[in-house]
Amino acid sequence: DAGVTQSPTHLIKTRGQHVTLRCSPISGHKSVSWYQQVLGQGPQFIFQYYEKEERGRGNFPDRFSARQFPNYSSELNVNALLLGDSALYLCASSRGRPDGQYFGPGTRLTVT
Amino acid sequence: QQQVKQSPQSLIVQKGGISIINCAYENTAFDYFPWYQQFPGKGPALLIAIRPDVSEKKEGRFTISFNKSAKQFSLHIMDSQPGDSATYFCAASDTGGGNKLTFGTGTQLKVEL
């Protein structure tokens, strides 16, 4: 079975721009979570969606938003990009709680 | 209260030796404790996980030891190999409150020949 897939792999944006990151979960997984990983640190929770409903939100500004589609894929949107948004954005899927979360390879976002 | 503290920050072990990484938590609502392995440029990979109703779980060369009263858990890698060289993260979640993972700060492991 295919693992979690994310696109694009890398992205370079300019301050103030908007970005959309995409994630496809493992087949059969209904929950998708997004994490931000800054270089040298552990991932930080941004959002969790289950069955298209937001089930949790981390301590991130309103510039960050997400949604989950009927096929359980998900998008993370970030508006008004700041230099500090440069990070590896990780998507993880699971069947639901309690269950292990399986991460994708991430999208490396660089804001210049 | 949401923090998970991880040590050491870096670790060098000889091939065949035992690698030990420790984590501590404060939130008593945490009830699921996974360990992840991450190679440079890759996403974290789930290695092994434990729930607080058991004190130890072993999968191959990887063992989690869990001490509920001390609010500590550790990863032991037996017979460490150069291919185990990676960054290891402990994490914890309160599954009753969702599936949000709170990660430790990571341990960079290097296994030398």
Question: How would you explain this protein's 3D organization?
Answer:
Chain A is mostly beta strands and 112 residues long. In chain A, 0% of the residues lie in helices and 51% in strands. The mean pLDDT of chain A is 95. In chain B, the strands form 2 sheets. In chain B, strands 2, 4, 5, 9, 10 and 11 form a 6-stranded mixed β-sheet that branches. In chain B, strands 1-3-8-7-6 form a 5-stranded antiparallel β-sheet, with no helix packed on it. The mean pLDDT of chain B is 94. With 113 residues, chain B is an all-beta fold. Classes of the chains: A mainly beta (112), B mainly beta (113).
- Helices and strands of chain B, in order, run as EEEEEEEEEEE
Question: What is the average of the pLDDT values of chain B?
Answer: 94
Name the helicity range of chain B: under 10%
CA distance, first residue to last residue of chain A = 37 Å
Number of strand segments of chain B:
11
Quaternary state of this entry equals heterodimer
- Describe the global form of chain A: globular
Which geometry of chain B do the CA atoms define?
globular
Concise overview:
Chain A is mainly β.
What topology emerges from the helices and strands here?
The complex is a heterodimer of chains A (112) and B (113).
Chain A: E1 5-7, E2 10-13, E3 19-24, E4 31-37, E5 44-50, E6 53-57, E7 64-68, E8 74-78, E9 87-94, E10 102-103, E11 107-111
Parallel strand pairs in A: 2-11
Antiparallel strand pairs in A: 1-3, 3-8, 4-5, 4-9, 5-6, 7-8, 9-10, 9-11
Chain B: E1 4-7, E2 10-14, E3 19-25, E4 33-38, E5 45-50, E6 56-59, E7 62-67, E8 72-77, E9 86-92, E10 102-103, E11 107-112
Parallel strand pairs in B: 2-11
Antiparallel strand pairs in B: 1-3, 3-8, 4-5, 4-9, 6-7, 7-8, 9-10, 9-11
Question: Which features would summarize this protein structure in a list?
Answer:
heterodimer; A: about 110 residues; mainly beta; 7-stranded mixed beta sheet; 4-stranded antiparallel beta sheet; B: about 110 residues; 11 strands
